[in-house]
Amino acid sequence: MSWIKIGLLVLGxxxxxxxSQERRCRCLSTDPCWPSLDTWNQLDASLTGGLVPxxxxxxxxxxxxxxxxxxxxxxxxxxxxxxxxxxxxxxISMNFEILPNETWGxxxxxSSSWPCSQGNLPTFAAxxxxxxxxxxxxxxxxxxxxxxxxxxxxxDYIGRSTAADAFSIWTRxxxxxxxxxxxxxxxxxxxxTTAVTVQTGVRLIDLYEATAHKDLVVVxxxxxxxxxxxxxxxxxxxxxxSPIYGLAVDNALQFTVVLANGEVVIANDAMNPDxxxxxxxxxxxxxxxVIDVTLRTFPAPNVMSSVLFIAAHNDTKSFTSVMTKFxxxxxxMSKDNFTxxxxxxxxxxxxxxxxxxxxxxxxxxxxxxxxxxxASVSGPPPQYIVTEFxxxxxxxxxxxxxxxxxxxxGGQTALLASRLIPLDSFDQPDALGSLLVxxxxxxxxxxxxxxxxxxxxxxxxxxxxxxVGVNPAWxxxxxxxxxxxxxxxxxxxxxxxKKAGDRVTKLNSKLIDFTxxxxxxxxxxxxxxPNWQQSFxxxxxxxxxxxxxxxxxxxxxxxxHCVGSEDWDAxxxxxxx
Length: 577
Ligand SMILES: Cc1cc2nc3c(=O)[nH]c(=O)nc-3n(C[C@H](O)[C@H](O)[C@H](O)COP(=O)(O)OP(=O)(O)OC[C@H]3O[C@@H](n4cnc5c(N)ncnc54)[C@H](O)[C@@H]3O)c2cc1C
Ligand SMILES: *[C@@H]1O[C@H](CO)[C@@H](O)[C@H](O)[C@H]1NC(C)=O
Ligand SMILES: *[C@@H]1O[C@H](CO)[C@@H](O)[C@H](O)[C@H]1NC(C)=O
Ligand SMILES: *[C@@H]1O[C@H](CO)[C@@H](O)[C@H](O)[C@H]1NC(C)=O
Ligand SMILES: *[C@@H]1O[C@H](CO)[C@@H](O)[C@H](O)[C@H]1NC(C)=O
Ligand SMILES: *[C@@H]1O[C@H](CO)[C@@H](O)[C@H](O)[C@H]1NC(C)=O
Ligand SMILES: *[C@@H]1O[C@H](CO)[C@@H](O)[C@H](O)[C@H]1NC(C)=O
Ligand SMILES: *[C@@H]1O[C@H](CO)[C@@H](O)[C@H](O)[C@H]1NC(C)=O
Ligand SMILES: *[C@@H]1O[C@H](CO)[C@@H](O)[C@H](O)[C@H]1NC(C)=O
Ligand SMILES: *[C@@H]1O[C@H](CO)[C@@H](O)[C@H](O)[C@H]1NC(C)=O
Ligand SMILES: *[C@@H]1O[C@H](CO)[C@@H](O)[C@H](O)[C@H]1NC(C)=O
Ligand SMILES: *[C@@H]1O[C@H](CO)[C@@H](O)[C@H](O)[C@H]1NC(C)=O
Fold this sequence. Notes:
Layout (H helix, E strand, L loop, with lengths): L2 H19 L15 H10 L4 E3 L14 H10 L3 H5 L38 E4 L3 H13 L4 E4 L15 E4 L6 E7 L9 E7 L4 H9 L3 E2 L13 H5 L6 H4 L6 E7 L5 E4 L5 H7 L9 E8 L1 E2 L4 E9 L3 H20 L2 E8 L2 E9 L3 H16 L7 E7 L2 H9 L15 E7 L6 H18 L3 E5 L4 H4 L14 E8 L9 H21 L17 H6 L3 H11 L26
Parallel strand pairs: 2-4, 3-4
Antiparallel strand pairs: 1-2, 5-6, 6-10, 7-11, 8-9, 8-10, 12-14, 12-15, 13-14, 13-17, 16-18, 17-18
The structure holds flavin-adenine dinucleotide (FAD) and 2-acetamido-2-deoxy-beta-D-glucopyranose (11 copies).
One 2-acetamido-2-deoxy-beta-D-glucopyranose binds next to loops.
């Protein structure tokens, strides 16, 4: 090794430790170092949308002077995903609104003596609506060493968009959509392509509407109130069309990001390419505040079909044989351009599969081997409906918005665990079928479910695993399987919630054992994922961590089981000892 190299290593170690030394416990709203009201007022005045207080969604129904109009709105919209995703202090999975050690914080339908605590929610949020607002908020957090979170739609299944006594950057009002006929990423000679630039807070339903009516498709998720450019894109983004065109991150051409030092940068193949790589699947909330992302668009298919299938059995043998056949035929269904979602519960297999660019005749023909098989299984005959849609827009409108309303739920409890199931596991349909039936029967005891996603395979596995930062386990996977563990009541104690979480963690360990070397999708995963660096990032972890330490040396952006978070203690407020 040359002296120059050694010199660089020493210098590197010095710079690194200098940076680490500047990491100190965050200043919380309970600490004397928390900025004074005057200082907050100055920030408030400098932001277009001001600073907003963050409070639990049920707060208007508590206290001495209840405004009945406001409280009624809370009652009416408690389970409404649109309403929740529009509040700086409401989360889609409400169990993350409270502290892990608390029995339900601030609730509806409880006696007036029930206290309304701030729980796990931040103290103030910057209501940002342009780049300059974001820069000011980031600089403020950095200057005052605050615990910082970014809250977008609040869909995160691990509660990463909230933290107690913290300062929040609320991105819902970064909401523009721009369509391009011929987009060329800055400073590149890339061939022009059709694309759409979405600001981080745009809802998927709005992105779908803006593109589908122009006969364009874009790779985006199934939940319409998820934000297009926040956690979804940062984690990788699976979609009902990812098997056709790849994950959302495989179609991201460029990002605009505000970094921890307040600088606004473009990340693409030519500008900040390392950051660009990390932003594509290395997890959100880690690199900076994403302002916008530009995604490739594609011509819409001429026709779409869906297959809705339900086989309810009352004996394990029939359920197992249907599951096993379903597994055996998955690789072929994937080649046949089916994608979609299935449920396993109460000895029932139910699925909604999409035949991409297939008419009804083709979809039915391609499904026939499975339908014929299930018709021969003892028990009640399965039910299915094959539907054809004349356009992509018609498919979306009917499927996402039945009867003209586009429902989106929120306000439930959720603790998940999940696994990416590799293609080679489908070579053992008997073993995988028995395992899933076994796990499903355990979930039945508490009324939980197994949700399978046929969103990998196809183009997802054809991409170079190292082309983007996302978990390379995606490049070998066909299914993403999620186990839910959510059956605890609003007033469950911390211990009861822990029990529900432990239960699903334990069940998931069977899937982990069955798929050694695979991983989990960090956006729909277990909050207590064992060996999470390997599971969420695989062989990409070390490179991601290097990029993290380069772009955010003081770790302003830290979240649970995000890259670099092992350098922090469990509260994420102090450097790890
Ligand atoms: C009902 C439901 C259905 C879902 N369906 C799908 C699906 O089909 N496909 C799929 O891939 N996923 C799906 N998800 C998972 C979804 O991708 C994650 O919940 C994701 O974290 C949501 O991101 P968000 O920004 O909307 O939510 P938030 O909870 O607001 O944010 C999530 C994380 O991203 C960070 N973040 C948000 N905005 C920014 C920003 N501008 N810059 C930097 N960091 C940011 C937050 O700090 C947090 O860490 C679903 C989730 C739910 C609840
Ligand atoms: C946030 O800012 C936006 C845009 O500036 C504004 O329309 C909205 O009313 C603000 N929201 C709150 C709660 O202050
Ligand atoms: C109650 O809240 C509504 C909606 O925010 C507001 O218009 C009204 O003035 C409030 N009433 C009182 C008495 O404060
Ligand atoms: C819960 O944890 C917080 C710290 O996260 C602590 O301040 C509080 O006292 C705990 N509450 C209970 C009831 O244990
Ligand atoms: C509150 O009670 C009403 C009436 O029983 C019920 O309809 C509503 O779903 C409850 N809300 C919550 C959040 O539990
Ligand atoms: C990126 O390209 C666009 C369109 O050509 C241009 O308007 C913009 O100024 C460029 N930005 C940077 C930072 O180069
Ligand atoms: C299902 O099976 C159980 C146990 O074999 C039996 O008790 C029950 O009656 C059956 N239910 C139906 C709807 O057939
Ligand atoms: C499970 O299915 C049986 C019929 O096989 C039905 O009788 C029962 O109600 C179902 N249980 C649940 C919880 O849905
Ligand atoms: C699947 O879809 C892709 C993209 O539209 C197409 O190229 C391919 O021919 C289709 N395959 C089948 C078997 O229909
Ligand atoms: C369905 O698609 C196939 C293949 O493109 C075509 O041959 C057939 O004519 C179509 N059938 C109908 C009813 O449109
Ligand atoms: C499915 O069953 C039908 C009617 O029993 C039969 O005509 C057809 O050949 C079968 N198709 C396959 C692919 O097994
Ligand atoms: C929670 O509330 C239910 C009624 O909704 C009650 O039956 C149950 O005992 C309560 N549990 C606890 C732990 O307080």
